[in-house]
């Protein structure tokens, strides 16, 4: 039974289109390889899929550049010259953009103001004022953040200080036996990020230097 003729048009289904491309690409490369061996010819095929992926076949012991050079020689044209001219034109445009940017930087730094007319000077002044406003707003936000952070640290320190005083008074009055309401009353806390142990020497404990009783509160920092 004869195979039906396939209508040549774009395959709308992307999956079927990719499958057809893969199959026909392999068949085309196989034919090019056979043609290279059977007829001793140079073949180069360059293909880009729908998603931009490159596929190519080049005859053994041959490079694409060699084939392009041979093509230019046969046709009497210079493809590289046209490409070089486009690159030179692109380089020229980039240099012009670079000069313009450097000139603008000098003007914003206060250099070469004599090269500007009145309208350009007014525009430059407006741009500088806008930039200064942005920088000033950022500075104020930074200062506000630092002030709020300092307030929080100060508040935490005051809370810790108040808690330590409360515990010390509880020990002094003998109403906090769990924290050592005896002769030495240690109080554990944190002050400025460091561990702190507070001891109080009861009045009935003699002072080593005077021999008299003392009422001493000592804080040892423990890192």
Automatic annotation (TrEMBL):
Residues 77-111 form a coiled coil. The keyword Metal-binding does not apply. One of its GO terms (molecular function) is RNA polymerase II transcription regulatory region sequence-specific DNA binding. Pfam families: K-box (PF01486), SRF-TF (PF00319). GO terms for cellular component: nucleus. It is found in: Nucleus. InterPro entries: MADS-box/MEF2_TF, MEF2-like_N, TF_Kbox, TF_MADSbox, TF_MADSbox_sf. Keywords: Coiled coil, DNA-binding, Nucleus, Transcription, Transcription regulation. Its main location: nucleus. Residues 1-61 form the MADS-box domain. Residues 84-174 form the K-box domain. GO terms for biological process: positive regulation of transcription by RNA polymerase II. The keyword Transcription applies. PANTHER family: SERUM RESPONSE FACTOR HOMOLOG (PTHR48019). This is Floral homeotic protein DEFICIENS. It comes from Morella rubra (Chinese bayberry). The lineage of its organism: Eukaryota, Viridiplantae, Streptophyta, Embryophyta, Tracheophyta.
